[in-house]
Amino acid sequence: MGADALRPPLTGIGRYTYELAMRLARHEEVARLRYFSMGQWLDDPLEALGTPVSSTVAPAAVAVRERTTLRTRLAGNPLAVRVFCAITPAFFGWRLRGNQQAIYHSPNYVVPPFQGRTVSTVLDLSHILYPQFHPRARVDYLNLTLRPSLARTDHVIAISEAVRREMIERRLMPPERITAIHLAADSVFRPHTPQMLEPAMQALDLRAGRYTLFVGTVEPRKNVERLVQAYECLPAAMRREWPLVVAGGKGWNSEAIHARMARAQAEGWLRYVSFVDQHWLPALYAGARLMAYPSLYEGFGLPIVEAMASGTPVLTSNLSCMPEVAAGAARLVNPLDVEDIAAALAECLGSDAWLAQARAQGLARAATLSWDACADQTVAVYRKLGSF
Questions:
Q1: How far is the C-alpha of 310 from the C-alpha of 190, rounded, in Å?
Q2: Is the model's pTM score more than 0.85?
Q3: Is 63 helix (H, G, I), strand (E, B) or coil?
Q4: Which of 87, 131, 190, 290 is deepest in the core (most CB within 10 A)?
Q5: pLDDT tens-digit profile of 263-322?
Q6: Are the CB atoms for 344 and 233 separated by under 8 Å?
Q7: Of 216, 66, 80, 218, which is closest to residue 136 (Cα–Cα)?
């Protein structure tokens, strides 16, 4: 298994890799599991990670520092990216030699040259569909590596049917060689009693049931700026009663939205929490009156399911994979229309009846998704590759 993403703080890819690897390591059909990262064979990286909670908000209680790798050091330099893409496949293939009787699974798009069978997971195609949402070097890296990687891949796992369709429409892989497998919420995301919520609410200086929550990196793709603009349109009394809490690290090209959030925070109706202790994150979800996630594009949108599993009603986008993931259990909006977002926020926040219905529907939807099922379906893909 490719283990590049198994380093703290976990990204969405890191969370997926971690949950899958944990289950594959003890799956009855997996005889042996080894980890490969940046040309090196690793000891068990899961032990070093412990039991991380969040894929979206890094813990602040401990000074977690991302492990610096060659790729992260060079990722901001387009020329370095091109050199990296030119020289690493041969080196990685040499390091992986002699594994004809194995399957290599890359959870992070790129499969190196490998003598056995190969599986790659494609989490989204944002670098193709929305290159403006990424730094140039990141787009260059995926443009240079994805198609050669797919040529070396026997089977692709897409994390939603939406991503599977996008791949088919762009003829990146034949339909019979792509399987959609959904992600899930960790079991720590569940409804909380008032007593369970109280320590976190005190630590975060929040009131249970009295705020709207957004969780995710603050960057253009997440559409936080339109969310804040929509909140500005709400009556002042509603903003005071249910302020907006934005929880997530500062992402690429986010200076303008941070300036706007700072003004809203000074006015008293927005709270920005850049990092949340992972111990408090489940309560942060469960204590919200509403989860607002009007992202412009997602491969899956894990915070939607984490909120639903926590018993928190969800407002999300009518684009990309979001309707598929919500499966009728969320209020859908046009994420490009500030007025539509604002109207939906007002209706959702102001209707106890809708909130109760959405809470029940969200819990039912989240219960249909599990990491165990994700692992079993992944092993079924391995099995589909046939005998050696």
A1: 4
A2: yes
A3: coil
A4: 290
A5: 999 999 999 998 888 899 999 999 999 999 999 999 999 999 999 999 999 999 999 999
A6: no
A7: 80
